Amino acid sequence: MHRKNDLRPMDNAMKVAVIGAGTMGSGIAQVAAQAGHPVMLFDTRSGAVDRALVGLRKTLDRLVEKGKFTEDLANGIQGRITSARELKELAGCGLVIEAIIEDLGIKKELFADLETLVAADAILATNTSSLSVTAIAGACKAPERVIGLHFFNPAPIMPLVEVVPSIATTSDIVKNAMALMKAWGRSAVQCKDTPGFIVNRVARPFYGEALRICEEGIANMATIDHAMRSIGGFKMGPFELMDLIGNDINFAVTKSVFEAFFYDPRYQPSITQQRQVESGRLGRKTGRGYYDHAENAERVPPSEDPQLLTMIHERILAMLVNEAAEALRLNIASRDDLDLAMTKGVNYPKGLLRWADEIGISECLSRLERLQAEYGEDRYRPSPLLRRMAREKRTFY
Hints:
This protein has about 400 residues and is α/β, with parallel strands linked by helices. The chain has two domains: about 15-190, NAD(P)-binding Rossmann-like Domain (Rossmann fold); about 200-390, N-(1-d-carboxylethyl)-l-norvaline Dehydrogenase, domain 2 (Orthogonal Bundle), CATH 1.10.1040. The protein is built from 17 helices and eight strands. It has an eight-stranded mixed beta sheet with strand order 3-2-1-4-5-6-7-8, sandwiched between helices. α10 packs across α11 (about 245-260). The chain is globular, with a radius of gyration of 22 Å. The model has no long low-confidence stretch (mean pLDDT about 95).
């Protein structure tokens, strides 16, 4: 018999519901089905679930062709996912994960409806990437059973899940949600319900500082990308990555984090990126962003000046380290979870806190102090934790 609010993570018989049959929702449904759960997929848009199931079949067939899945495994995954035509069909599910539009009002309305349909011991989870889990839970009479499970796109490939309790979520639900995600083969990290959670908060300087360097005319986009790949070991430079993500999405996240932190200058959006969005240059999906993605399009070659490349890399990395240190100082997540989130969520070559140890805490602090002295902006203020650690000659590891 199920204890109240017990996810029983090893129980594959638990029925899982996913609301929203877009790329993210269908990906989460696949992950749950791969873990052996029967899954119900629901979407209010006509034909959305049917399209998602057709897309899933194509994905599974490709994996079989590549030898990554057996045909039996693929058929089993497909067979465990069924469509729900009405919300009330989700009544027997022990876990409901919503992956719908990032609109607080719509999500709150959905959670209020769900609470009346599912059992008292069912868990309600949101896949929100930028909204407050606490605010969503506020729509429920039992907010203690609401939690954030933030998957990364594409969910079947990207291993990270940020587990985000609201201020009301019980410790048992947090513990069991972490265990469930690990049972699903995910890299689960726990973080506070603060703007951007871990990844979308800590990663902001990767884009923001790159844009600032370009705006100042210090280096062009190709050179900045080249510096972060060749010296930093990043798989993609910031402008390449923004074009892949979509400038509209990246700009919206930056604005959301900036506003949610009461306009802290560390998260200030870039007018350059705003103009890209206004002009419809959204990146790969429109064929043009910071780069022209047309076939045979000419690109300005990057500079090979070693001093310039080193300066770019050191400046951006110092800002990233500073953001990770602040997140640790404010208990957003543990040291290990902060580093795991950045390596598994956005494929950073190293955890930022471990990287800081390699560079030297005092050197990281010096880079930030030089930037703050030169610009006189609060944007570059060093974390008090870095100051304290440098003074005490301590390291993160």
